Amino acid sequence: MSNLAGVAAACSRESGAAIANMENCLEYSPLQFELVGHALVIGYAAQAAGFVYFAMTMNMTKGRNYQLSSIYGMIVMLSAFLLLYNQWKAWEDSFVLDANGLYVAGGVKLFSNGYRYLNWSIDVPLLLLQLVLVSGLEVGKGFNKNLQVTTSGLLMIYLGYIGQFYENPDDMVPLIAFGVVGTVAYVIMLAIVLQCLSHAKKNFKTESAKSKMNLVFWIFLIFWTIYPISYFMPVFSYTAEGVVVRQFIYTIADVVSKVIYGIILTQICMDESDAVEEEKDEEHEE
User: Fold this and answer.
1) pLDDT cut 90: percent of the chain above it
2) Maximum Cα–Cα distance across the chain
3) Highest-scoring range by mean pLDDT, 64-78, 113-127, 217-231
4) SS3 28
């Protein structure tokens, strides 16, 4: 079996499940191919920059929870960087330029979005734990909240992971079914997260921290919520244009919900740390 025949077999719709992600089953103009590659580069470069930021600011916050938040942020950045770099490498290696000037899957290996879900299974619990740490929840209550958001978050991720094996334009029912159930798990997770945000704002000493926590609210509401759009893209647009849009949504969501989110939490930690230090200085003066 030739390489191209292997791709055709992987994209076969006869079995009811197009095992290959739709990226492998389409043709791309040079512009479309480069746009996807550039989106992936932006993604992993941003994660690398985030890692450096968290490493440099870790000692600028006081308190065990705040420093742990920075460490978790570094772990998230490192895992996301490794994943997105390999995604970019796979994109560059999986396609060849044909005689018509279009990029097609070359059949040496297949491009897969499934690795993203495996990465999210590491990142999402840590991102949510960062929020619990910064929100100032008591140990027991914080553990319970983290367990709840982690359980619902992982359920969402693994349902999406299973569903992405069914990107079959002739039979979208399994893809939609897994996606809908996963979205329900996301809504449950979001409700718990919003409780943590509300609790955090009550605990904060500074108005600047409260204002920045409002930004975190919108990150969850907008940029975590656009991930399902990428998941359902084969339903909306099983086209090369749909692939470009999907990869840009993934990149934008990854950068904002990981890097920008982490930076805002770090800034909150700094504000609260400074407030605590000022209180201590005032007590000593008295």
Assistant:
1) 33
2) 83
3) 217-231
4) strand
What backbone torsions phi and psi does residue 95 show, to the nearest 5 degrees? -125, 150
3-state helix, strand, coil in the chain (%, to 5): 80, 0, 20
pTM of this structure: 0.86
What is the structure's pLDDT at 51?
92
Q: State the Cα–Cα distance between residues 256 and 177, nearest whole angstrom.
A: 28
Could you give the CA distance from residue 253 to residue 222 in angstroms, rounded to a whole number?
A: 9
Rg (CA), the chain: 21
Calculate helix-pair angle for 261-285, 30-57, nearest 10 degrees: 20
136: left (phi over 0), alpha (psi -120 to 50) or beta: left
Q: Which of 40-44, 49-53, 274-278 has the lowest mean pLDDT?
A: 274-278
CB atoms closer than 10 angstroms to residue 59: 9
3-state secondary structure string across 68-112: HHHHHHHHHHHHHHHHHHHHHHHHHHHEEECCCCCEEECCCCCCC
Residue 1 pLDDT class (50, 70, 90 cuts): very low
